[in-house]
Amino acid sequence: MLAREGIAPVEVAHVEGDEPPCPACGTAAPLVDGACSDCGLQLG
Ligand SMILES: [Zn+2]
Prior knowledge:
binds zinc ion, mainly alpha
């Protein structure tokens, strides 16, 4: 249990960024005016 608690937060913090991946193209780059910077899908 102790080992799991030590690993989980690190993986979550690494995967979860400021922006979630775009559901259309998978780009995890910051949004531009609330839209995906790659395909332009509105996410915000
Ligand atoms: Zn996109």
